[in-house]
Write a structure and sequence with these properties.
By secondary structure, this protein is of the alpha/beta class. The chain folds into 3 domains: 6-101 and 202-222, D-Maltodextrin-Binding Protein, domain 2 (3-Layer(aba) Sandwich); 108-188, D-Maltodextrin-Binding Protein, domain 2 (3-Layer(aba) Sandwich), CATH 3.40.190.10; 233-306, 2-Layer Sandwich (Double Stranded RNA Binding Domain), CATH 3.30.160. Helix content is 32%, strand content 23%. It contains 10 helices and 13 strands. It has helices at residues 15-31, 45-48, 64-71, 132-141, 154-162, 173-178, 212-218, 224-240, 286-299, 302-307; strands spanning 6-12, 36-42, 77-81, 95-100, 108-111, 126-128, 146-148, 168-172, 187-188, 203-208, 248-254, 260-267, 274-280. Strands 2-1-3-10-4 form a 5-stranded mixed β-sheet, with helices on both faces. A 5-stranded mixed β-sheet has the order 7-6-8-5-9, sandwiched between helices. Helix 8 (224-240) packs parallel to helix 9 (286-299). The relative contact order is 0.15. Bound molecules: the ligand NCc1[nH]cc(CCC(=O)O)c1CC(=O)O. Residues 81, 83-84, 154, 171-172, 174-175, 200-201 line the site of the ligand NCc1[nH]cc(CCC(=O)O)c1CC(=O)O.
């Protein structure tokens, strides 16, 4: 098999996204010594628009321009956070996932300049987050805290925190590690306290479907466990058909003995209703596990709950 000589990598241009690209470049040069890589940074709608994401079509806001560059032949490989790749629809026609990299930390972290933990925060503390998933879970577990809208990349959010726009932040541990700022974390929240989003901590490499030489060359970078987990989680979300204002969380994990489990939740925005299911795959393949957990939540009324939220 002839290895490609040059791989042009397209990604968002945020500090986190560019750090992700550096990880991919390092893994590529270890796998394919002598290969050259080039970075093609693009700005996405999600980076440019700092208002409500549902007003700019929401889903796909962080991936659309990256996929367009891949399809236009301006790059050969796209690096995406699986979390940002819409799961309710197929991947853009003509593209395919070539690998899911080994999963990073899936948990969210609290950043409180005073060093308090989530349980210690006084009533009225303003948590900067626009995530409907984080807001609903905080409303359920810590109703005395207040969420204030905050978007922008992680570095920008920390600037806003320093400027007093919020008293504390919730951000993904994986993202903070990627931008080299795990030092700001005051508490890592367990997945029981804050159930992660679909695809948390997994990077996906996406190629043009017909580029089989490149796909074959880079597929050894894929991690089998991350692939199974991402497949179960994304099928769960596909069957559930949420929208960008629906608080949905879900986390698949290969447990003892390798059996895959998927725990998933759907919330009302006020956190007063929480639907919850947790199943093990047993003999099921990952996609069927995802389907089964989605159906379990639909039986509990997830469709009515999701459709009842304005979007
Ligand atoms: N929406 C931005 C985004 N996309 C992926 C991550 C975290 C890293 C990951 O899960 O891969 C983040 C930042 C955050 O939520 O704090």
């Amino acid at each position: 098999m002839s290895a490609p000589e040059l791989i042009r990598i397209v990604s968002r241009d945020s500090p986190m996204a560019l750090a992700q690209v550096e990880r991919v470049r390092a893994e590529l040069s270890a796998l394919l010594p002598g290969v050259r890589t080039e970075v093609v940074p693009v700005k996405t709608t999600g980076d440019k628009w700092l208002g409500d994401l549902s007003l700019v079509e929401g889903k796909g806001a962080f991936t659309k321009e990256v996929d367009a560059a891949l399809l236009a032949g301006e790059a050969d490989l796209a690096v995406h956070c699986v979390k940002d790749v819409p799961a309710d629809r197929p991947l853009p026609a003509g593209t395919a996932f070539a690998a899911f990299l080994k999963r990073d930390d899936v948990r969210d972290a609290l950043i409180h300049p005073g060093g308090l933990t989530l349980d210690e925060l006084p009533a009225g503390t303003r948590i900067g987050t626009s995530s409907v998933r984080r807001r609903a879970q905080l409303a359920a577990s810590h109703p005395h805290l207040e969420c204030v809208p905050m978007r922008g990349n992680a570095n920008r959010r920390m600037e806003k925190l320093a400027a007093g726009d919020a008293d504390a932040l919730l951000l993904a541990v994986a993202g903070l590690e990627r931008i080299g700022r795990p030092d700001v974390i005051t508490e890592v929240l367990s997945t029981d306290v804050m159930c992660p989003p679909i695809g948390a901590g997994i990077l996906a490499l996406q190629c043009r479907e017909g580029d089989t030489e490149l796909i074959d060359a880079i597929s050894p970078l894929g991690d089998p466990a991350a692939h199974r987990e991402a497949t179960a989680e994304r099928m769960f979300l596909h069957v559930l058909q949420g929208h960008c204002n629906s608080p949905i969380a879900g986390y698949a994990r290969a447990g003892r003995g390798g059996d895959l489990s998927l725990r998933a939740c759907v919330f009302t925005p006020d956190g007063k209703t929480v639907l919850n299911a947790h199943e093990w795959a047993g003999r099921l393949d990952p996609a069927t596990l995802g389907t089964s957990v989605a159906v379990a939540l639909l039986r509990q009324g997830a469709r009515e709950l999701i459709d009842g939220i304005a979007h």
